[in-house]
From TrEMBL:
One of its GO terms (biological process) is purine nucleobase metabolic process. This is 5-hydroxyisourate hydrolase. Homotetramer. The keyword Hydrolase applies. Residues 4-116 form the Transthyretin/hydroxyisourate hydrolase domain. It catalyses: 5-hydroxyisourate + H2O = 5-hydroxy-2-oxo-4-ureido-2,5-dihydro-1H-imidazole-5-carboxylate + H(+).
């Protein structure tokens, strides 16, 4: 069964990104539709897949990581507006029967992502 998961790692601190709110969107016919939101747990993961089964289909998705709120809570000093505040990751799902793991490696001045498993 296909599913969508994520994991946030704070590479500046070498620890999981705890309590990060992630908004989830689907694109269809040029329309961006909100399909929910999740919050990372103490391990920087979500307690369950973001989407799975019939709720997960071929198409384009976007995960919006509210990183600025997390960095403020961690006491990371920065000028406002922050260099990184809201991080949108838009990606395509070609085979909804597979596992799409979309991690975010985060620091106050950079991030990276990839498709994991």
């Amino acid at each position: 069964m296909g599913r969508l998961t994520t994991h946030v790692l704070d590479t500046a601190l070498g620890s999981p990104g705890q309590g990060i709110r992630i908004e989830v969107f689907r694109f269809s016919g040029g329309e961006r539709t909100s399909i929910g939101e999740v919050v990372t747990n103490d391990d920087g993961r979500c307690d369950a897949p973001i989407l799975e089964g019939d709720a997960f289909s071929v198409g384009e998705y976007e995960l919006v990581f509210n990183a600025g709120d997390y960095l403020r809570r961690r006491g990371v000093a920065a000028d406002e507006p922050r260099f990184l505040d809201v991080i949108p990751l838009r990606f395509g799902v070609a085979d909804a029967s597979q596992h799409y793991h979309v991690p975010l490696l985060l620091s106050p001045y950079g991030y990276s992502t990839y498709r994991g498993s």
